[in-house]
Amino acid sequence: MTQRSSQRTKKRDKKAPIYSVVDLETTGTNVNHGDRIIQIGCVLVQDGEIINHFETKINPREKIPRSIVQLTGIEDKDVRKAPLFEDIAGTIYSLLAETTFVAHNVNFDFPFLNAELERAGYPSLSIPAIDTVTLSQILLPTAKSFRLRDLTSSLHIEHDHPHSAVSDAEATAELLTDLLKRIEQLPTLTLEKITQLKLNLPQQTAGVFDVELLRRRKSPQPLSEELYVSHGIVFHKSRPITANGQREQHKYPSTKKAKEKLYGETLKLRPVQAKMMNSIYNNYTHDEPKNMIVEAGTGVGKTLGYLFPLSYVAYPDKKIVVSTATNILQQQIIDTSIAQLNKVLPFKMNSVIIKGNAHYIDIARFVHSLSVIEDSKLVQLLKAKILVWLLSTQSGDLDELNLNSQQSPYFTEIRHQGIRSLNPANAFYHDDFLVRREKRLHQADIIITNHAYLVAHAQELGDGTRRPYLVIDEAQHLSESILKRSRRTFNFQKLRTAVHIMSGLVNNGNDRNLTDIFAEQALGSYNVELLRGDLNAVEEAVDLFQQALYRQYMASATGNPDNELIEQPLQNDQVMSLLDISGPVMMKLEQALSSVQLHFSALSHLFSSQPDRWLLSDRYLMSQFQSQLAKLIEADQTLNEFNETLQQQGEAAAAFWITIRQSSEQSALQLSGGLLEATHYLTKNVYPYFAQPLFVGATLFTSPRSLYLYHQLDLERNNTLTRRFASPYNYKQNAKLLIAEDAPVPSAQNNSDYIKYLSDTIYQLTKNADYQTMILFNSLVMIEQVYSQLRETDLFDQRDILAQGITGNRDKILKQFSSGKNSILLGASSFWEGIDLPDSALELLIITRLPFDSPDEIMNRAHNKLLQQQGKNPFYHSELPKATMRLRQGIGRLLRTEDDHGVAVVLDPRLQTRRYGKTILSSLPTDLPVSGKKTAELISITQKFLQNGKEDKVN
C-alpha cells in the first residue's frame, strides 16, 4: 500500500474544492452478485494540482477470472498478501470525505465503492460525484473515442498502464484538469445555454456548469477574438480565404534538382512520385490531352502526385475538382495533402470541401430545438455538445462530431435541407454554414468532393466553357456510386411512422400542436382541418399501394412463405404498370401528397407573415411537421425515380424486388430497385462539364488485358493514356502471402466443417502471437459463426477480439483496433479497403475466402442474367475482375510504410488450384513472395516471419 504527497510546483489556492479522482479494478461488474475490488487508485486534485496519491491492491478472497487477469495484469498471487477491503475502508472513507468524487464512468465506480463501504460497516459517501466521460463528450465534441486511453492519447496525457487503477486515476486527474480549464474558457452565453438545457447527467456532473456560471456572474470575462455572437449563439469566426494578390503562372519544376530545391526540408523527393507528377503534367499541357488513368501503388504518394502537377497546369485561371470515394478521404486530402502542397508551392491553392446538404447542421433549426426540453437524455447531451462544437467548427459539417448516433430522429430535425430551404430574412441566414460555404466555393482553387456528390451535381461543379480539371481518386468506385444512387428503397413502415407523427401534430390532443397554434385564426384552423383529411388520404393511398404490390408478390412468389425474411424479384413490366402516374394507385398517392404540401404551405405562409406572434416552441412544432413532410416527399421522389429509371434506361437495365420481414406480431414490406449497369451515364452526365478526366487509384487494374475498368468508367481504351507506378515498398523482404493448400473449398454442403476449419486455424494462428490481426470475411453471418466457436476457446482471455455486427459497428471497432496492441478484428466487406493501419497497427491479415460476390444476391442474379443476354460471360466479365480488385485492396492493407512487416494468409485453396487463381495472383505486387503450404506448416512459417520482423524493428 502506498500513500504519498506530490511536490508543489505553484502556489495553490487552498480554499479551492478538492477532487478525489478514483479508479477501481474489480473481479466483475456487479457488486450485488459478489464481485469485489482488487485494486483502488485515488488522486486528490486541488486548483489544478495533484496534492496526494493513494493506491493499493486488495485481496478479494475469491479467484480472479482469467478475463480480468488479461485485462488488468493482476493475478491471484499479486493480491494474496494484500489487505482486505475491510482493513482499508476507514482510510478510504476519511480520505474521500468532504471531496468531490470523480471517475471515468462514475456510475460504475461510485456505487461500487459505496456498496463495498456499506459491506464493511461504513455509511455510503454522501459527497457530490462527477463523470469525466460525459464531460468529455460535451467539452471535446470532435473526439473520436471517449475511452480513457484514447482521450489521454489525443490530449498527450501520459498514461503508461491502462487498466492499472493508479495509472488510470492519475490519467483521469490530468483529464479532469483539462476539462475544468475548458469549462473556464467557455463563453458565458454558451454556458447559459448549456445550463438552460437542464442536462440529466450522471450524479452531480451537470452542476459543474452551474458552479462556473455562478462564478462567471461575479467575475465576467471577455469574449475571445476568434468568436462572435449572433442572436444569443456564439460562433467561431470564418477564416478568410487567403488572397494571392496578382495571380500569374509559374514554371513547373520538371527536373529532380528543381523539385528538391522547391521541397527544401519540407518534403522528401520520392523518385516514383516525381515520375508520376511529370507524366500527368506532360499530358495536361499537351496540345491534345487525353483522358488519363494512373495506377499508383501504396507508398507512391498518389494524392500529392496529382495535386502538385495539376496546380501548375490550372493556376491561375482554372479550378481543380477532386472527387474521392468517402467523406473520410475528403478530410484526409485537405488536412494532409493540401497542407503539404501549400508548404512547397510558390503560390497558394485555396481549397474547400463540398458534401451533400444533409451532412451540415441547419443553425436556425438547431436554435429552434434548444427551446424544447427533451425527455431523451441523449438528445439534451447532443445539444450541449453542439453548442460547444459551434465555438470551433469552420464548416458546420456534422461528420466532425464522429457520432454513431446520427441516425437519431433528432438529427433529422437539424440536418440541412439546402440553401433553397433557407429564408434570407431568418436571423441566422448569414451565419448559415452552407451560405458561408457558397462564398468559399467561388474563391476556391481546389474543390474536394465525393463520388456520390459529383454524380448528382456534375453540372453545378463543372463549367461548360471553363471546364475545370477533374480528378477521380479511388476511380474504381465511381461506377458503383452511380448504381448506389439509383438503388433506393420505399419503406412502407417508415412512411406510416411519418404520417402518424404528422397526424399527432394536427389532431386534437393533450399536448400543444398546430391545432392550438392556429386556433385563433380562421384561415389557419381551416388549413389544419384540411391537413387532417389529407393525411388520412395519404394513409389510404399507401395501403392501396401496398395491397397492389403484395398481390404481385403472391402472383410470382417462389420462396417459402414461412421464412422470416423473404426477398422476391418482380417483373419490371409489372412495376412499370404499378408506378404509372396515370394509374389509380399512383394518382391517388400523388394527389394526397400534393394536398398536404399545399395546405402546409398555406400554414407556413401565415406563420412567417407574423414572426413576432409565435413562441420558440411553436417554431419547433412547425419544424417537426416540415421534417416529417420531407420524408413523405423523399418517399414520393423514390417512386418517381423508379419510374424514371424504367422509362429512360429500359426495363432490361434495372431490377426490382420486394422484401418482407415477418414476425409473430406483424410483417413489414418494402420495395427496392435500381440500375444494374451505369452504361454511358458518365459520358452523358458527368464528363461533358470538365476537361479530360484524370483517374487515379492504388488498385485499378485486374489484368493487363482486362477491359473491365474501361467499361466501368465509360472510356475507350484507344483514347485513354494509361500509366502504372509500382509500390516502392520492399514486398520481397517485408511481406509474405501464404495459401492454405489443404483448406476445404467453401461450399454450402460442407458449411459446418468449413466453419470449424476456419475457427481452428484462426485460433492456431493467433493464440501464441501478440500481433495485430485482421480477419476478412465475405459476410456478417460467417463472422457470427466463427466468433461463436472462438468464444468457446481461451483466446478471449488472451486477446481483445472485435467483431463487426457483434461487439460494435465498423467505426467503433476500427477505432478500438487502431489503438490496440494485440487485438483481433473480424470484419466483412467494408474492411477490405479504405483503412490505413501503419507500423504495428496491422501485422497479420487472414483472408477466409476469395472475395467473390454472392451469386444468390438479387442484384447479382439480375446483372448476370443481363450480361448473358448481351452475350458476355458473367464470371470473366464481372465476377472475377471485382474479386481480383477486392483481393488486391485487402492485401494492400498490409504494408502502409516502408518499415512495415506483415503476412497475408489466404484460407482458400482455389487461389492456387483454379486457373483463375493464377489470374488473380498475377495482379499482385510482382515481388510479393507467394507460396502454398499445408495449414500446420503455414502456421509455423507465419509466426516465425512475424517474430523475425519484430526483432528487425527492435534492432
From TrEMBL:
Domain Helicase ATP-binding per the UniProt entry, residue ranges: 259-526
GO molecular function term, any single one: DNA-directed DNA polymerase activity
One GO cellular component term: cytosol
GO terms of biological process kind: DNA replication proofreading
Residues spanned by motif DEAH box: 473-476
UniProt keyword list: ATP-binding, DNA replication, DNA-directed DNA polymerase, Exonuclease, Helicase, Hydrolase, Nuclease, Nucleotide-binding, Nucleotidyltransferase, Transferase
Domain Helicase C-terminal: from-to ranges: 757-939
PROSITE patterns: HELICASE_ATP_BIND_2, HELICASE_CTER
Family annotation (Pfam families): DEAD (PF00270), Helicase_C_2 (PF13307), RNase_T (PF00929)
Source domain of life: Bacteria
Positions of ATP binding: 296-303
Gene assigned in the entry: dinG
Enzyme Commission designation: 3.1.-.-
CDD domains: DEDDh
UniProt record similarity statement: Belongs to the helicase family. DinG subfamily. Type 2 sub-subfamily.
Purpose of the protein: 3'-5' exonuclease.
Signal peptide residue numbers: none
Name the record gives this protein: 3'-5' exonuclease DinG
